[in-house]
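Q: Okay, next protein. This is Transposase from Enterocloster aldenensis. I've checked the sequence twice, so it should be correct. Can you predict the 3D structure?
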Amino acid sequence: METKVELQRFYPTELEVANIYQTDTEIRIKMSARSKSCTCPKCGTISEHPHGTYERKVQDLPILGKSTWLLVNTYEYQCDNPDCDVTTFAGTINGFLNYYSRMTDRCADFICTLALETSCEGCYRICKTMNLKTSGDSVVRLLTKQYKLQEENKCSSVIGVDDFAFKKRHTYGTIIVDGATHKPVAILDGQDGSALKEWLARNKHVRTVTRDRASAYASAIQEILPDAMQIADRFHLHQNLLEAIKNTVNSIVPVDIKIPKDYDKSGQETGFQGTNEGKKNPMLRG
């Protein structure tokens, strides 16, 4: 018996699938919004006065390797709150489509998850093979937007701080990771510690910070949270240990090591040939 899977069941009930168009590389799904009310993004007032309609072109997750675009005929609303400075705003579908977003929430979540597991450029290359339209810079902007929306007070009292490159050798930022969940809680601009100071001032419940050896981070933590415990992370702890071992060995072993000549029982020279010149300690090179 032949069965069919209705496309409608993969989309919220607030959206009605009207028509489907497809080519060899692309699928376009014509949809219309059923709801005629929406919440103002600024004041939270529910508006039931549609101002007009317009078509939104929104990217969704690919279907069978084809780029998928939703052509959503949605309402634009007027805010009924006289004290609100928002005049009109686009309709939304909670958990699926945000205000003025160019992709669905599930599509944005997929890209962010992939970028965190790989890298922004790696995510872009993988998305390209899937016919998911994006770029390395777009992934960075999407990550920044997504994680700025998170509630910062949800992090535990243990955090990790490190720098990273938005664009290597050009633009750097600071990432803060929850030490309990091992998930990012904030992405900040710059690596000079100024943005970190502002974040710490809003999160004074933090008691333990793991960080690298950057003096900017150490100073910021000491200034804002003087009672917090600062811990070197494993990588930099090993790096400190190796440097200490190297300095100790170099203080004991001379720069030039003389290699003596070998003689057999008859007194004839064997083995080493040439002048008795010293070889330099390899640990002191460079």
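A: Here is a summary of the prediction. The first strand starts at residue 15 and ends at 22. The chain has a mean pLDDT of 82.
Q: Noted. On to the next one.
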